[in-house]
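Inverse folding, one chain.
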């Protein structure tokens, strides 16, 4: 797979669609890698006494995503909505193995 083509360099809708499809494949591959990191967290958290949901970490991730979105010109509300779902999916995946913690701390986009 070649280097990404800047959207402004695409000369037709067909070329732009090929670029979008290539980007989508890369995004899915990165999400699969992130899911593998969550699976590893499931293995590591018990030995460190950590629950699935760590509110300070959730907030730090959301803060980082908002800052990255702002820095790259992505709508921060969109980034927060996507990561909210991703974080909740990740925590649910961890809780299936680790069990839920007693008190719930929902991750909310700001």
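Residues assigned per position:
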């Amino acid at each position: 797979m070649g280097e990404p083509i800047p959207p402004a360099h695409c000369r037709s809708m067909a070329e732009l669609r090929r670029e979008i499809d290539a980007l989508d494949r890369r995004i899915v591959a990165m999400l699969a890698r992130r899911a593998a990191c969550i699976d590893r967290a499931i293995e590591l958290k018990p030995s460190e006494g950590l629950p699935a949901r760590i509110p300070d970490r959730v907030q730090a991730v959301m803060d980082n995503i908002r800052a990255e979105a702002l820095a790259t010109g992505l709508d921060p509300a969109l980034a927060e909505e996507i990561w909210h779902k991703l974080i909740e999916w990740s925590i649910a995946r961890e809780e299936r193995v680790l069990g839920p913690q007693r008190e719930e701390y929902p991750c909310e986009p700001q």
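Residues 25 and 62 are 24 Å apart (CA to CA). DSSP finds three helices and no strands in the chain.
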